[in-house]
Amino acid sequence: MKLLKITILSLFFINTYIVNSQNIGDFTSIDPTVAQSASFVISSSHTFQKIGEVGDPLSEGGTFKPKPDFTAYVPIANSSTNGYLSINSEGSAVTDGGGGVMVFDINFNATTELWESTASEDLDFSGVGGTAANCSGTVTSWGNVISCEEGVVGDILVPDGYNDLGWNVEINPATKTVVGKHYAMGSFAHENVTIHSNDRTVYQGADSNPGYLYKFVANTAQDLSSGNLYVFKGLKNGVGSWILLDNSTQSEQNSTLTQSGPGDHDATVFNGIEDVEIGPDGMVYFAVKGEGTVYRFSDSDVLEATASTVTMETFVGGGVSYDVNDGSGTTSVAWGNGNDNLAFDGDGNLWVLQDSGKGYIWVVKNGHTQASPDVEIFGSTPTGSEPTGITFTPDYKYLFLSIQHPDAGNIANQVDAAGNTLNFDKGTSLVIALSGNLGSPLSVVNKDLIKEFEFFPNPIKSDKDLIIKGKQINNTKLYSLLGEKIFDIDYNDVNEVKLNFKNISPGLYLIQINNKETSKLVIK
Length: 524
Hints:
mainly beta, Neuraminidase, five-stranded antiparallel beta sheet
């Protein structure tokens, strides 16, 4: 007993040290030479928990919608443990029942150290003529979410003078209501917006080719329904300025792309602007998917009270390869195309999600330059998928994102921090954190499997047999915390099983019985 207490205390202090000495951006890169697989591969220092997956029932009716995208954590009173999770559906309401936004009331359970949902609802957009292709967006300082419609459809289905799709839509996750579509922000394939701290200036881009970079300056703070719209014209590595667009009538607001293009303002063309974010340094960063580049620029007058000067440069990518060290060696990895969603963590690192190749989650470390690069790879999404949407809690301990359109044939059998078995054969939304911040490793002591089965002893020495008792035991599996399957043994309706772990390294594992009941196991 004394030895057990010492072991538990050691685990506690080691866990506490790791949590207190690390931030979410502190990790060792994954091995970039490994091929993409059915599993969700992330750095070994972190773990994840499922929030929901396509087809799961929602508490207020309906099911989790297809093609989950932007996962916007909206804190209640700036809380990092209690808030709303707004999840976009990038699907088409016509072809696959998608499109729209779901809102989950979520909170972090301090006892289980897991996230829980107390309510979930599919919002009603009928008051604004419906919505679809809801891609990314942003969380406003006033507690609302901007959901961006990536598709553009003319004034066909709801003849009201405005294009049916191609707008920024504001929702209130607390009241589960739609504030409205913001026509003054322009009609184009919206991917994302970012709002300046003045609550008036918004930077955004068109996810098309040709695509353009825009600045919107609202007339009134926290009211995006009216204002001036500008398009960027200038050098991609050099100086440019903003050109004011005609934006007061319905036809002008419907024709944002036409006004920006050849024969009119001849604005600078970008091949698919995905995400736009304002960095902690005050510069504006934006990802261009087709160019494989993240640019950044300074804006001398964010309110455009006078003609501002825009100074732009390539921040990361642009046909460059970077040395990635996975702890055992260094590999030169091409940045590639497909730069998508962006987000800064609390240390000023830029997280870049990639929707091509291996579905990498890149992290560009604070202080990186093209002359002195510092780039790591945090994760790789399952076969056929891309990582989408990304927000952090205010304390930056938890990261929310979605896995969109994975291959339907994926069989990953990964076990998350809550004991859920995931195959990643359908769209899934997740929360990610350091292992010490998600799921309690100390909860394994003297913990039996729930309901049908019991097993003992736990912790167990590697030279002892683990006894499992229960009715109709048909299968046992052992997983590492990273989801690696250690063994998979079938039985024929037996009532007792003995397992020996003499060839398995000491550590914390997950044991699963009959593919449904999972618990943590300590091997000493």
